[in-house]
Amino acid sequence: MTALSHALRRTALLCTLAALSAAALPALAQTKPIRLIVPYAAGGPIDVTARVLAERVKDQLGTVIIENKPGAGGNIGADAVAKAPHDGLTIGIAATATHAVNPWLYRRMPFDAARDFAPITQMVRVPNVLVMNADAARRLKIETLADLVAYAKANPAKLNYGSGGNGSAGHLAGEMFKAQAGIFALHIPYNGGNPAQLALLSGQVDFNFDNLATAAPGIRSGKLKALAVTTLQRSPALPEVPPVAELLPGFAIDTWWGLVAPAGTPDDVLARLNQAFVAALQSEETRQRFANLLAEPVPSTPAQFGAFLQAELAKYQKLVKASGAQVD
What we know:
- The protein is an alpha/beta fold and about 325 residues long.
- Helices cover about 50% and strands about 20% of the residues.
- The protein contains 13 helices and eleven strands.
- It has helices at about 5-30, 45-55, 60, 75-80, 95-105, 135-140, 145-155, 170-180, 195-200, 210-220, 265-280, 285-290, 300-325; strands at about 35-40, 65-70, 90-95, 115-125, 130-135, 160-165, 185-190, 205-210, 225-230, 255-260, 295.
- Helix 5 runs parallel beside helix 13 and helix 8 (about 170-180) packs across helix 13 (about 300-325).
- The longest helix is centred in the N-terminal third of the chain and has 28 residues, at about 5-30.
């Protein structure tokens, strides 16, 4: 073989190898881990559900690393998602607080909840529940939600309720309930959900709107009396407890969270993420593990979750304004 032939064959081989290497680059890029930012501390319900899904999607998406970035009511973590590259390798949790309440509660926000995120799918819905101290309910002869409303109307300014703080979900649910029922009850804010629940258990306050997962142990033990859930339908976890909407039509205020990416993430990337996470949410194993947290999986399309986020943002604008709560 001539030197020219050798040179030509060597050139052809190098070109082939270069082409193969170039073709392999996208595949190698797909092996990079996805970072899922949870804007709350490790160990809570949001963190636990994120870790369950991260494990379920690894066959479709590869490694998903959970990164907890708590602080400022979830704003620090959400802001990290908003400002991340829109390449599909950073996604995060959007929750009731970060994407519906905080934009109206905080005077200054580091991100725009309506424009800085691309929805992937809703993950979870957790009912809130109106609970009374069981001893107080017996003393006041309150067996139902209608009894509570009737007592409040007959005894103006004698009831109070607690919450985890001004602008918290429990506070806003209480204000919404008072407005629709036409009653008054003094709001007593505490520094977090646990102190508010302790105040209820000790009889310092008459009722709370609490997260069902948090209130469930007290309900099961008989220390708390559940009068109503805040979802439009009854909760499978408390099928005997009616929704507030049976007495006050349209009343609905619950805790939710879902997955978002930075705005500008390509549609095909969002579709791939949605497909993997929706499949994980629909699996029986996920449903069973979420049931232990009294959380209901709510898979959706990006468009459905986007419409839901817009509706929740508008709803909480009115609630926060009516409550008068503000954080500097």
